[in-house]
Amino acid sequence: MNPDHYEFTLAINLIPEEQDLSVLFSGEGRPLPGHTIGPSVHDFYLIHTVLEGGGLFECGTFTAECRAGDTFVIIPGSLFSYKADLDNPWHYAWVALQGIGVLDLLRAVGITKDQPFIRSGGGNAAELHSLYEHIRLAFKQSAYPRLESLEASGWARLLLHRFGRDNLSALPPNPSGMPEMIDRQIDQAIRWITLQYHQQISIDHLASSLGYHRVHLSKAFKQRTGLSPKQFLLRIRMDKARELLGSTLTIEQVASSVGFNDALYFSKQFRKATGMPPSEFRAVLRNGNEKDTGGSNI
């Protein structure tokens, strides 16, 4: 038991190896009235959510009176302090994070160095409490600490998602001039084609799946990319084919890998796009004459 707390629980990650986001430790506590941390700095991200009671959080010039459901975040290198209320000291849960992707993830849910706080209704405290418990309980001191670390990172991402839902008004605005829904659908179409180019993609089916007529989708798609969906698909396939032709795959295997069931038709399209058949392109690659491979005519 921590002498400054009525209750104190802590779980530590033995192998915080994930590069993007990794949980270092997570805990929960009920400090004594007036219990104070800081002024201090940390070299990791430390997130607290108030479950009951209240207290004061200060970070740089930012100050907030916290109550149940509120979350405050300590950014590495920032001078901070926080103090439990004298009459109704807080009960809070916390998680420490590190990783090259943490700052961007926090920004995505509306948390920044200048606004390291989410004001939320107390009604969400129980759901947030459950997520913190899942993070902490992931560290079961089993024989598989790497699996524990992966599980904790997953729960931490769900926690950040919940913060974003509670903080919608602070989220970055839609950067595109297009209407938000069609903008989102074009993003989805681009990702769909980029990831599924090896499949037999029907542009009609793609448009229908996204809830748009083919003509409407094609027009919006071309405004964004400069290409029609069909042209974009062909460019993705040809770019991937160029890459695969540097491998040991046969021409037929390359064709199949980029979505062509007919190797002859693939060769025709490849020659149209690059100015040479796949076999010649491969020979040029093997001879190290990449400057002669030509550009796309799509």
UniProtKB/TrEMBL annotation:
Q: Which SUPFAM superfamilies match?
A: Homeodomain-like, Regulatory protein AraC
Q: Which Pfam families match?
A: AraC_binding, HTH_18
Q: Which UniProt keywords apply?
A: Activator, Cytoplasm, DNA-binding, Transcription, Transcription regulation
- Ranges for domain HTH araC/xylS-type: 187-284
* Listed CDD domains: cupin_MmsR-like_N
Is Hydrolase among this UniProt entry's keywords? no
The lineage's top-level taxon is: Bacteria
Please state what the protein is called: Helix-turn-helix domain-containing protein
